[in-house]
Amino acid sequence: MRFAIKVLTSIRFAAATIGVIILVSVIGTLYPGGDVVFGSPLFLALIGILAISTALCSLTKIVPLWRDVRRPQIEVSDHFMQALPYFVRLSGVSLTQVRDSLKGYAIRETKNGSTTFLLAQKGRVGRFGSHIAHFGVLILLLGVAIGAVYGNTNPYNNKIAVIQEGGSQQVDGFSLRLDDFNVSYYNNGAVRDYTATVTVLDGNLIQTHNVTVNGPLTYKGLTFYLYGYGVTPSGNAWVAFQIKSTSGLPLVWVGAAVALVGIMLSLYVPHKRIWIKESNQSTQLGAISNKSSSRFLNEIEGVRAKLESPPHRVEYSTRSE
Hints:
Layout: H1 2-8, H2 11-30, H3 41-70, H4 78-83, E1 86-90, H5 95-101, E2 106-112, E3 115-122, H6 129-151, E4 160-164, E5 168-171, E6 174-185, E7 191-202, E8 205-211, E9 217-219, E10 222-231, E11 237-245, H7 249-268, E12 272-278, E13 283-289, H8 293-307, E14 314-316
Helix pairs in contact: 2-3, 3-6, 6-7
């Protein structure tokens, strides 16, 4: 069991699975009739395996991370402080002064005997960025799976509907009527754009829409794209619409948005932590950030320089978590 979890949560396994999914998707896209691939048991199994891998990867890491963020270690040893990327002993600076200089930080404080410990944090949500991204991927995969199962079983998916001006066609329980069709041209005679005015007739519901090349019509899980146009021998205009099922597509977009938010948080919201330990002997300050370490260390050095005069020796490195 442990071995299976180790394999499923490995980056190499996830990368290999994604590679196979991409290969299968390319085959299904390029070859005639390849759309059936997306509803096949193989494709759904690959999606399921990737979803399980992503979920396990987050679950095995998010619990200890949540515990660490919710109940951080406030009381720390001198050895811990000195091992941090930034460490300095402050002279002539009180704990109150340090606290007041840390604007925008969430501060927790505790006392043990004559020693006072303070922990200031900022950007904790950034630590969850990768897990939020994983959650977004799971939503996206669910949308893909729904689209694969229901989209490809819809008899109207990938069909071409040719409708003459003034005529209509029955589609999945409703009718689509072509009311008007117009083509606009550039000065050189090239086609600029073409617009089809259509009406959806669904029982008592009547809706009129303008369909353009970049503005398709979506109704009841089906999207109608302008595919072609022409004129019959008798002079009547006709328009061809390509029908695509949008089953699962909303979940795909939501999942992509959530994943993007998670990636942005992970990349641009560093988790900054500062420990201050004040005792009768000295006041110590140590700091660490999981991102942008050099910038953060310079920031803390600027705070120290304002608090302490004249400047004292600072011990820090560029190590981060």
